[in-house]
Specification:
Elements (H helix, E strand, L loop, with lengths): L1 H15 L5 E5 L5 E4 L7 E3 L21 H6 L6 E6 L4 E4 L5 E8 L7 E6 L2 E7 L3 E4 L5 E10 L5 E4 L3 E6 L13
Parallel strand pairs: 5-12
Antiparallel strand pairs: 1-2, 1-3, 4-6, 6-9, 7-8, 7-10, 10-11, 10-12
């Protein structure tokens, strides 16, 4: 029990050390007490300030450009192309479902977004994702392209236009012969 009191007292002593003077005394039963209030027969204890550590500032190894320069000039995209569907390729899906995948290098700058152009018109809201999903695309030839837009909505770069052909089976096509 005495050890517990001593440990708790020392913990309190270290926590309160910077706030007040500490006094130590032993009562008639031999128990050691610590307090910030002087007691008859108490001795004053000099408490050493707690050791602190301030880590050094991190070194910025990114580049020589300052943050203001990065904000002024937009990042240039070296590779920007539609990888799926293939140009002049045929998509066979009876629901008219098409997945459009884009390759972009380097990665999209924070704030920039991609806009899908389908048959010359913007489809949906600009997004940060490299995959677009369309459904209900009618049969026939369609053109797609993708644009990179900055936060103001200005077009930074556009892919080459890709033409693909949607093939959807029609009801009553082919086989089976005539009905009676």
């Amino acid at each position: 029990m005495n050890k517990l009191v001593l440990v708790v007292s020392l913990m309190i002593l270290t926590i309160c050390a910077s706030y007040a003077q500490v006094y130590k005394w032993t009562d008639s039963q031999g128990n050691v007490h610590f307090s910030d209030i002087p007691h008859t027969g108490a001795e004053k204890i000099n408490v050493i300030d707690a050791q602190t550590f301030s880590p050094p500032k991190p070194i910025n190894n990114v580049s020589d450009d300052s943050d203001s320069d990065k904000k002024k000039k937009p990042r240039t995209y070296k590779k920007f192309e539609i990888t799926e569907p293939a140009n002049e390729g045929t998509v066979r899906n009876n629901q008219g479902y098409v997945v459009i995948n884009v390759l972009l290098e380097p990665d999209l700058t924070p704030g920039d977004k991609l806009q899908l152009l389908f048959d010359g018109s913007a489809i949906g809201e600009p997004q940060p994702n490299l995959t677009f999903k369309l459904s209900g695309v009618y049969r026939g030839a369609h053109n797609i392209a993708v644009q990179v837009l900055n936060p103001k909505g200005d077009v930074l770069k556009t892919t080459e236009t890709i033409t693909f052909f949607m093939h959807r089976a029609r009801v009553g096509m082919g086989g089976g012969g005539a009905r009676n």
